Amino acid sequence: MEQAVDDGQSPYHGRNLAFYDFMVFRGSAPLFWRASPRDFLTMYNTCLGAKHLEIGVGTGYLLDRARFPVSNPEITLADLNPATLDFAAQRLAHYKTAKVVANCLEPLPVPEGSHDSASLSFLLHCVPGSLREKGVAIKHAATAVRSGGTVFGHTILSSGVPVSGAGRWLMKNLNQKGVFHNDEDDLADLRDQLKQNFDEFDLVTRGSVALFRGRKP
């Protein structure tokens, strides 16, 4: 399992990060997963709090474009990969940021209830196991958020949603390479995980992508 977790984050290094935004937000998202990046950004704009925890930081693309509810937000970047942490922190240097090395499958190294919002953006489909197993990442995110705070995110599913022929081909290829681990990821399992952690939640799909948010009781 530990090796699979490392494999899932291994492509996010150095030169690859420079092309990540173009490949994902102008390439695979609209062309293969049939989802618009505008919907991802809208979720950020409507869910971000003044003190935000980003779990699985990617390049910081969406955070950099999002509208925070305050002019001076505090952002904690949490990721297993030091390269992505450094890349995102540099991109978001105009904000107050902190970096922590963390595995989303384990309790997060931040105090309980310390953040207003937390996101799992395009993370779960890169984490090994079924959603019944890796759904614990949602629990850990909720633990880090205060009562009334919001946990939100996006993930690419392989069943319970429409997957185009091109999308199925790319998904199979990425799973074989160990970049994705979503060949068991089902919409119903994601809904069950949200039910276990939130009294109130929203779950919608755009193409093969699920967008979710839950309010901490």
TrEMBL record:
Keywords, alphabetical: Methyltransferase, Transferase
InterPro entries: Methyltransf_12, MeTrfase_VrtF, SAM-dependent_MTases_sf
GO MF: methyltransferase activity
Annotated ranges, domain Methyltransferase type: 53-150
GO biological processes: methylation
Domain of life: Bacteria
Protein's recorded name: Methyltransferase type 12
Annotated organism of origin: Streptomyces rubellomurinus (strain ATCC 31215)
Organism lineage: Bacteria, Bacillati, Actinomycetota, Actinomycetes, Kitasatosporales
